[in-house]
User: Which sequence fits this backbone?
C-alpha cells in the first residue's frame, strides 16, 4: 500500500462510521457531535471500530439499536 492511500477496507470502514453516527443521532434526537461523544463515552464507538463489518451488513435500524444497547449496558441512559 502506498503511503497516504487508504485500503478498500479502511475506506469502507470510514464510510460506514460516517453513515451510522448521523443515523444514531437522528434516531435518538442528538446532533452528530453529541452522538459521537455519547457512543465514545459508553463504549459503542470502540465496539463499532472493532465490529464494523458485522454491523454494516445489518439493517441500519438494527445496527443503531445494537449500538444503543451497548451504550445502555455500559451506563448510557438516553
Assistant:
Amino acid at each position: 500500500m502506498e503511503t497516504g492511500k487508504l485500503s478498500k477496507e479502511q475506506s469502507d470502514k470510514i464510510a460506514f462510521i460516517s453513515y451510522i453516527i448521523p443515523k444514531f443521532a437522528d434516531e435518538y434526537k442528538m446532533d452528530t457531535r453529541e452522538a459521537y461523544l455519547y457512543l465514545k463515552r459508553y463504549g459503542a464507538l470502540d465496539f463499532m471500530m472493532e465490529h464494523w463489518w458485522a454491523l454494516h451488513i445489518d439493517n441500519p435500524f438494527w445496527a443503531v439499536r445494537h449500538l444503543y444497547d451497548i451504550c445502555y449496558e455500559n451506563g448510557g441512559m438516553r
